[in-house]
């Protein structure tokens, strides 16, 4: 049996609407929203009494998706430190290819986003940066130059 595809990346957030607005500003589309609860959800995630709202975000090409989840019960647990550096163990970012990196950065700043480091250029190939958005979510942006 082979892997069919990567379906989505899940991100737990406290402010679902702010996270949706951030990713819409990036250029993703809201595919749908749902409330998740019940024994099947408890069994799947290994928690009791799960009730959460999710929003499925889709990239414009339809191939990539993010599942944003706001837990009502049990309450979400904050990670420490609040804004971990990139070399902290675990998953840290999702990278997006963009057409105009400076425009994207400017638009995301209206949603409270900040550069983690700075906008840098890799050879004559890419302009790259890391951006910290709502909930401390880090995304990477890459603009291909050639």
Automatic annotation (TrEMBL):
GO biological process, alphabetically ordered: L-methylmalonyl-CoA metabolic process
Domain of life, source organism: Bacteria
Coiled coil: none
Molecular function GO terms recorded: metal ion binding; methylmalonyl-CoA epimerase activity
Residue stretches making up the VOC domain: 5-144
Keyword terms: Metal-binding
PROSITE patterns recorded: VOC
UniProt xrefs under SUPFAM superfamilies: Glyoxalase/Bleomycin resistance protein/Dihydroxybiphenyl dioxygenase
Protein's name in the database: Glyoxalase
Taxonomic classification: Bacteria, Bacillati, Actinomycetota, Actinomycetes, Streptosporangiales
